Amino acid sequence: MMSRGNLRICLAPNSRADFRPHTSYPVITIVTPTFNRASTLPRLYESLLKQTHQDFEWVVVDDGSSDATSELIKNWQQANAIRVQYIFQRNAGKHIALNTGVTHAQGDIIFIVDSDDAITEDAIRNISDKFAESDHAKLSGLCFRKVKFDGTLVGREIALDSIYATANDAGKMFRGDLAYVFKRAAMQGNPFPQIPGEKFVPELYIWNKISDTGNILFFPRIAIYLCDYLIDGYTSNFTATLRNNPKGFLLFYIDQVKREKSPLLKIKYAIRAFQCLYFRAAKLFKRKALKN
């Protein structure tokens, strides 16, 4: 066990009943979108092998990789140490890869883990136990903490064992990335929009919609996710991402204007929305200029 303050990391609790009785199908599906991450996938795979609770499957959605990803996954499937599905698709963006993963998932619970990250040894056990302990009929999902590989907590420490919150409010409360776990039905009912010519939609846009369908129970003191930010990661260049995906961001910012109660935040998101309109017009102008 490793601990930092009141945060629990890799602490396996006593065995309890699972979210549903054991069947030939896994309770939990880990969905991992990946693009040219053959160098980091082995770290995630090793963390899955170490799970104290093995009732899960791993669905890897390859978003058009040109490296050795397919060979790696094939070897792991042949090893048969854990259940692995591998789906290859043309490069369409992480959000579409998530849609694909949810479509192929067999578990009732979806845990999204990026290909350059890993999970704690008790992650699956914690997810299973917390769903079993909760009134899961009213839940759309759970949420846990992320820590960096050196054990540093991502975001603020919160002195609560659990709290219900929306994804939008949680972002302000924790001020850092969180490890969301959703019911498959909630994700199936709220897929990411597919926008021609764009490859990114902010995840919070969908997490907020899922929050609208049912409660999300947060566990501020339980970390299940190990992460680090790579220079070429999805979140590394906000301005370039916004410029290349103005329609996806526009959906998000218009939705944020409607959700926010703070006048200052409403103004901030409205300005971002106008920025998206500018970038969208610039893309259209450039496309027409190239045709001429």
TrEMBL record:
Species of the source: Ralstonia edaphi
Residues covered by the Glycosyltransferase 2-like domain: 29-136
Record's signal peptide: none
Keywords attached to this entry: Glycosyltransferase, Transferase
EC number: 2.4.2.53
Protein name: Undecaprenyl-phosphate 4-deoxy-4-formamido-L-arabinose transferase
InterPro entries: Glyco_trans_2-like, Glycosyltransf_2, Nucleotide-diphossugar_trans
Taxonomy of the source species: Bacteria, Pseudomonadati, Pseudomonadota, Betaproteobacteria, Burkholderiales
Any GO MF annotation of the entry: undecaprenyl-phosphate 4-deoxy-4-formamido-L-arabinose transferase activity
Keyword Transferase: yes
Transmembrane segments: none
